[in-house]
Design brief:
Number of helices: 6
Radius of gyration: 23 Å
Structural class: alpha+beta
Number of domains: 2
Order of helices and strands: HHEEEEEEHHHEEEEEHEEEEEEE
């Protein structure tokens, strides 16, 4: 009887904490409609390969973004078992509409992972019913799950109510384009045969050129999805020139620097790893395909600009390999 009462109390606390937390978070970015029952099922089915490293990614038409960029909540109970809770905000990839939260429970001893899709305040009743059922029929079967989830949601709610959620409010005010990693319609995508076409003309299943960072070789890859977004988007740019001209010739630069432009947050592959285009500084090294040698060569950034132009429609490709070439420069999906 005592255990049943404790389980009921935890269930009620978790449900109440969830409702308050969702109202506080989604009041900042309220939308006319929220998560549907079908979306709830689709989000629950998403598999995350590495919970500690995968803090932002797109899957099955959704964007998952680690809540406030926080690491996992970690709990070690008297039974010696370490339990973790990971929190992600969930957005619709098509229009970056806020849908809710994904809380993932992990038992480090058993390896058991249980996702809980927490609808936003404006969600469909079916989504809320599904979440409550999960709390009742899944949460009670795993010792320690309900208490850890209740603690995390209650603590986040308390932080928001106390004004400690400034970062969350700032995050809630993000413009849609902050989640849209894209290029203008005329951006030139390098195909697997070395030719190119505008990104606006690329279609799913097209075979484009990709770069394998492990083998440092060019490989073909299939386009799995083409994302398009309409609005007002500012493009940043970097100007590149071949490294060999800078190092092997004492005369002024012979080749006119080439421009690479995209939204400032779109990641490119530099000599030191992944970096948003807007964070790339003069002097850094990017990788570019040389059509004459069919090899990847190094180009040096000689100039950066935070604003090149504005466009009302942008595009991004999702590929099987995670990379493709724009203007023959190696870029990443997101």
């Amino acid at each position: 009887m005592k255990n049943n009462l404790l389980s009921l109390l935890l269930f009620l606390c978790c449900a109440v904490a969830t409702q308050f937390f969702s109202q506080r978070v989604w009041a900042q970015t309220a939308t006319a409609t929220g998560m549907t029952g079908d979306q709830w099922k689709a989000i629950k089915a998403i598999k995350i390969a590495n919970l500690d490293k995968d803090t932002y990614f797109k899957s099955s038409g959704f964007i998952l973004d680690r809540y406030e960029e926080r690491p996992a909540y970690v709990f070690t109970y008297s039974d010696g078992v370490t339990r973790k809770i990971y929190l992600y905000k969930v957005f619709a990839a098509e229009d970056t509409k806020d849908l809710g939260l994904l809380a993932i429970y992990k038992n480090e001893k058993s390896g058991e992972v249980k996702p809980f899709v927490i609808p936003g305040a404006n969600a469909d009743r079916k989504a809320w019913d599904a979440y409550i059922d999960e709390l009742k029929y899944v949460g009670e079967k795993e010792p320690g799950l309900m208490s850890t989830l209740t603690f995390v949601l209650s603590r986040e709610m308390a932080g928001l109510m106390a004004g400690g959620g400034a970062k969350a409010e700032e995050s809630g005010d993000k413009k849609k384009e902050e989640y849209n990693f894209c290029f203008a319609a005329d951006a030139s995508v390098t195909l697997a045969d070395g030719t190119s076409k505008s990104i606006s003309d690329v279609t799913p299943n097209d075979v484009v050129m990709s770069y394998d960072a492990k083998t440092k070789t060019l490989v073909p890859t299939n386009v799995t999805r083409v994302d398009t977004h309409e609005g007002n988007f500012t493009l940043a740019g970097v100007w590149l020139t071949p490294m060999q001209e800078l190092t092997a010739d004492t005369r002024p630069i012979l080749t006119k620097p080439m421009l690479v432009e995209a939204t400032a947050n779109h990641p490119v592959l530099t000599a030191t790893g992944r970096k948003p285009l807007g964070n790339v500084a003069a002097g850094e090294i990017l990788l570019r395909y040389d059509a004459a040698t069919r090899q990847v060569v190094t180009y040096k950034v000689v100039k950066t600009e935070s604003v090149i132009r504005s466009v009302n429609k942008v595009y991004n490709l999702a590929t099987k390999s995670g990379t493709y070439l724009v203007g023959d420069v190696v870029v990443l999906d997101k």
